[in-house]
Amino acid sequence: MAVRPVRIYGDPVLRQKALPVEAFDETLQSLVADMRETMHAYRGIGLAANQVGVLQRVLVIDVPLEGDRRADLALINPVLSDRSGSDVDEEGCLSIPSVYDDVRRAQRLHVEAQDVEGKPLAFDAEGYMARVLQHEVDHLDGVLFVDRLSLLKRQFLRKALDALARGEMPEGYVAPTASRGSI
After folding, report:
1. Residue 60 φ/ψ, nearest 5 degrees
2. List of E strands, 65-147
3. Does some domain include residue 143?
4. How many domains does the chain have?
């Protein structure tokens, strides 16, 4: 396992649509293990493959649920359907450090995907887990959470986004390294 660098706003790979996974092999398993390690090292709860520069429809999540339970999943070729309800809550993104804003998302949805071995998965998600899944699938489609904001909000964030696109990281930002390990 390795911590891979997370691509930052302005990197063209974040705007590209990821391709379906066809080979369920050791390379895929290694990618998923690296993505999990990277997500934890960056203290995230979700990560899409294009955030680490791989244009495949792969995402990992580690979302807190009720009590001590967590949804720790790797989803390959995820498809979201049957969206219902609506909820607005604050989102941030590992690829857009120090930028947060309220985003409207479906409150409930149905998920169909495959696991790392290619076996089909299907389940319903709601609340915070549904939000995280929508955020990560957006990444796989080349959509960032800031794209879902109003024009006025995007204009307000323009200075910070332009700075990120130029490679200027927010004050105090320290990218994780493999030696720091995961949390």
Report:
1. -130, 145
2. 70-84, 87-93, 96-105, 108-114, 120-126
3. yes
4. 1
Residue 44, number of CB atoms within 10 A of its CB: 21
Task: Please indicate, yes or no, if residue 1 is contained in any of the structural domains.
Answer: no
Given a cut of 80, whether residue 162 has pLDDT beyond it is yes
The per-residue pLDDT for range 37-56, each reduced to its tens digit, is 999 999 999 999 999 999 99
Over residues 121-137, the pLDDT tens digits come to: 999 999 999 999 999 99
| Residue 141 DSSP code | T
Range of the domain at 75: 12-165
Asked whether residue 175 is domain-assigned, the answer is no
Active site residues: 136
> Tokens 């066809």 sit at which residue?
22
Predicted confidence (pLDDT) per residue in 137-149, tens digit: 999 999 999 999 9
pTM above 0.90, yes or no: yes
Question: Measured on CA atoms in the order 173, 15, 135, 64, is the torsion positive or negative?
Answer: negative
DSSP 51: G
End-to-end CA distance of the chain: 15
Q: Tens digits of per-residue pLDDT, 9-19?
A: 999 999 999 99
CATH of the domain at 22: 3.90.45.10
**Residue 65: CB partners within 8 Å, gap ≥ 6?**
71, 128, 129
Tell me how crowded residue 37 is: count the other CB atoms within 10 A of its CB.
20
